[in-house]
Specification:
The complex is a heterodimer of chains A (314) and B (214). Chain A is of the alpha+beta class and 314 residues long. Chain A has eight helices and 13 strands. Chain A has a single domain, classed as Sulfite Oxidase, Chain A, domain 2 (Alpha-Beta Complex). In chain A, the strands form two sheets. In chain A, strands 1, 4, 5, 8, 9, 10, 12 and 13 form an eight-stranded mixed sheet that branches. In chain A, strands 3-2-11-6-7 form a five-stranded mixed sheet. Chain A starts with 23 loop residues before the first helix and ends in a 13-residue tail after the last helix. Chain B has one domain. Classes of the chains: A alpha+beta (314), B mainly alpha (214).
């Protein structure tokens, strides 16, 4: 069965086969395909095939969850609070045309189209663990590019201590936004050093295809060492701030969800234990597995939090 | 409920077998999905689906048990009271299975962790307490126990009021932010209890059923 291995070393069989590599020129032309991301990709629609290379350095050697699991069982409260709701209710959502407002403490604020955002970045596939704060987990092959590389382009200044993100507000297309389960629109944030960490990913795809609506099309954050709710979806705003920005779940229940939300088996959610997690797809009789500090990425990210009391900054 | 005088020639009634069948349908559906019959499945998180399915149906049937007397009195159909025990026992069955699913499939019989959860997690504490309260009710649900306990049987079986309240709270405290569904169950509970308060036995000694509590 699946074994959790903290190592990021790939098996030889998992190293990108040669035919997966392609030239930079091809990569750039591939970005046009990414532009087609929007084309209303929903579950069964023909999803745009992305061009990407697997990044073996950032890929796990655990078997990934099925596309079915990843696209039919997730939280995206904008489409409803049941984990089957996002797949059911996201058909009307239009992820194209799309633009992102960049604002705050940087030299190049403005409104950028999705094509502008994506153009210079080579897409890579990274197989990451995802640990939900509800104590279940998956392994997901994301396609995207490092968040830090994008943020650098906007030239954040010395006052940019944090990055705030905002999800699109479209109650017409997102039925979950018609009832204030959370204080819409959804907002999230990272400390700038967290945002610049090479593991922080902006995803545009899943299993080699453009992100389905229910998984945060067309652009979402993936921060694998944090609980899943930090991974804000359908991003329309990126703002550099001097002070720690508000975050949706922290506003909703500050005792239960902190700003940092690092995966931590020794700091329980007030209502349930975080020591173990249920791996989705493991079946009815599989036992839970131990949750790893920083979701198994401690080696890479623990240094960001040196000297911090992680019980206090949960 | 005191055993009603039975007519000498009792006709066959389909109501009990039918009710039995109806109450078993959600369980049957969960079982078919759990065993993957004809491609059915419990979805990506089968343990959660089973746990929540059993718990939700347990709570629904528990509230349905509390509906029986208001409906019987309102419709002047005292015969409906005959059906209440079966609904209550089915509720208990679902809730025991819910508990066992949690114990075995979810917590993997990790007894120390289970004990810690019951003590430390309020939503688990109230759910567990609700189930414990139902145990004596299931045990004393037989005709024999009814006769043996007499008046005290009614007092004892008022524990269902507490169990249903704790069960609803168990649901409310488990959700992350969307309290709408548990609120529906709590509203039903409040409505049913208000009816009981309104129709306190002292106020209306006329109706034969209103003397029966629980």
């Amino acid at each position: 069965m699946r074994r959790t291995r903290p190592s990021l070393q790939p098996l030889p069989s998992e190293i990108t086969p040669p035919d997966r590599y392609f030239s930079r020129r091809e990569l750039i032309t591939a970005l046009a395909a990414v532009g087609a991301i929007g084309a209303g990709v929903h579950r069964n629609a023909s999803a745009a095939q992305l061009k990407y290379a697997r990044n073996p350095r950032f890929s796990l050697n655990e078997s990934a969850n099925s596309l079915e699991d990843i696209t039919t069982y997730n939280n995206f409260y904008e489409f409803g609070t049941d984990k089957a709701d996002p797949a059911r209710n996201s058909g009307k959502f239009k992820p194209r045309p799309w633009s992102v407002t960049v604002a705050g403490e940087c030299a190049k604020p403005g409104i950028y189209t999705l094509e502008d955002i994506l153009k210079p970045h080579a897409l890579e596939e990274r197989i990451y663990r995802l640990r939900c704060v509800e104590a279940w987990s998956m392994v997901i092959p994301w396609v995207g590019f490092p968040l830090g590389a994008l943020l650098q382009r906007f030239e954040p200044n010395s006052k940019a201590k944090y990055v705030a993100f905002k999800t699109v507000m479209r109650p017409d297309e997102m039925p979950g936004q018609r009832f204030p389960v959370l204080d819409w629109p959804y907002v999230e944030g990272l400390r700038i050093d967290e945002a610049m960490h090479p593991l922080a990913l902006l995803a545009v795809g899943l299993y080699g295809q453009a992100l389905p609506n229910q998984n945060g099309a067309p652009l979402r954050l993936v921060v694998p060492w944090k609980y899943g709710f930090k991974g804000i979806k359908s991003i329309v705003e990126i703002r550099f701030t001097e002070r720690q920005p508000p975050t949706s779940w922290n506003i909703s229940a500050p005792r239960e969800y902190g700003f940092y939300a690092n995966v931590n088996p020794s700091v329980d959610h007030p209502r349930w234990s975080q020591a173990q997690e249920r791996r989705i797809g493991a079946g009815l009789f599989a036992s839970k597995q131990a949750t790893l500090p920083f979701n198994g990425y401690a080696e890479q990210v623990a240094g960001l939090y040196q000297g911090m009391d992680l019980r206090k900054f949960y | 409920m005191n055993a009603p005088a039975r007519p000498a020639m009792q006709r066959f009634r389909a109501d009990k077998p039918l009710l039995f069948l109806l109450c078993s349908l959600p369980l049957l559906w969960l079982a078919l999905r759990a065993f993957g019959v004809t491609g059915l499945s419990l979805g990506p998180n089968p343990v959660e689906a089973l746990l929540h399915g059993l718990g939700l149906w347990g709570l629904r049937l528990l509230l349905l048990t509390l509906c029986v007397r208001p409906v019987a009195v309102t419709l002047r159909q005292p015969r409906l009271m005959r059906l209440r025990r079966m609904v209550g026992l089915w509720a208990f069955t679902y809730l025991v299975l819910h508990f066992l699913t949690w114990l075995v499939l979810d917590r993997g019989l990790d007894l120390s962790g289970i004990a810690a959860d019951i003590v430390k997690r309020p939503f688990i504490s109230v759910g567990f307490t609700a189930l414990l309260l139902l145990v004596p009710l299931a045990v004393t649900s037989t005709d024999r126990w009814m006769r043996r306990l007499g008046r005290r049987w009614h007092s004892l079986h008022r524990l269902i009021y507490a169990a249903a309240l704790l069960g609803s709270l168990h649901f409310l405290w488990l959700v992350k932010a969307d309290w709408r569904e548990p609120a529906v169950y709590i509203a039903i509970y409040v409505a049913l209890m208000s009816w009981r308060w309104w129709k306190r036995p002292v106020a209306r000694p006329v109706s034969p059923t209103s003397r029966e509590s629980a």
